[in-house]
Amino acid sequence: MKSILTFTLCLVLVGTAPADSARMFDEYGDIQFADEKARLDNLAIHLKQKPDMDVWYYIFAGTKNCEGEARRRAVRAKNYLVKTRGIQPDRVKWVDEGYREHLLVEVWVWPRKLSKPYTKNSSLDKSELPMIRNCKSKEHQRQRRINL
C-alpha cells in the first residue's frame, strides 16, 4: 500500500513540474561515442518536442586527456545533433569549463529567454596539469579535423 501511495505522489509531483523549466538533462564522464550517441538521440527528441529550449554543454577535461579534448568532444556532439539529428546549430551551445580530475560533461536544457546556466567552476588549474600534447590515437587525430 505504501509503495502505491508513494508512486502516486511521484506521478502528481512530476505532473505539476513546469514542462519548460531549466534543468540538467544529463551528466556523464569519459564514455564511448556509441554510448554518447544514444544519449544525444534522447536529447534530440526532447529538443524537437521543446522548440523554445536550447542545450548547453559544459565540458570539464580530465587530467589525463589530450590537449583540446573538451573542444573536440563538444564539437563532435554538436555535429551529431546538427548534421544527424537535424537540430538547429544556434540551439546547441558549449563551454569549455576547465579541468577536473576526470572528464565530465554536463548537459543542460535551458529556455532561450533565460541567460546561460550557471555551473560548477573548474577545480584544477591548467598550469598544474600534465596534458598530453601529441595524441597518437587515430580517434584524436581524426577528430582534429572537425569543423564548428
Structure explained in plain terms:
The chain has about 150 residues and is α+β, with helices and mostly antiparallel strands. It has one domain (about 20-145): 60s Ribosomal Protein L30, Chain: A (2-Layer Sandwich), CATH 3.30.1330. It contains four helices and four strands.
Q: pLDDT under 50 segments (min length 5)? A: 1-17, 137-148
Per DSSP E runs of 2 or more residues, the count of β-strands stands at: 4
Number of domains: 1
The fraction of residues assigned to DSSP E strands is 15-25%
Cα radius of gyration in angstroms:
18 Å
CATH level-four homologous superfamily name: OmpA-like domain
Stated plainly, the CATH topology is called 60s Ribosomal Protein L30, Chain: A
**N- to C-terminal distance:** 54 Å
Number of helices: 4
What are the secondary-structure elements, in order, as H or E? Answer: HEHEHEEH
Strand order of the largest sheet: 1-4-2-3
CATH architecture: 2-Layer Sandwich
Helix percentage: 25-40%
Largest sheet: 4 strands, mixed
Q: Class in CATH?
A: Alpha Beta
Structural class: alpha+beta
Integer average pLDDT: 76
Query: Given the C-alpha coordinates, what overall shape results?
Result: globular
How does the SSE layout of this entry go?
Elements: H1 2-16, E1 23-28, H2 33-49, E2 53-61, H3 69-84, E3 92-99, E4 104-111, H4 138-143
Parallel strand pairs: 2-3
Antiparallel strand pairs: 1-4, 2-4
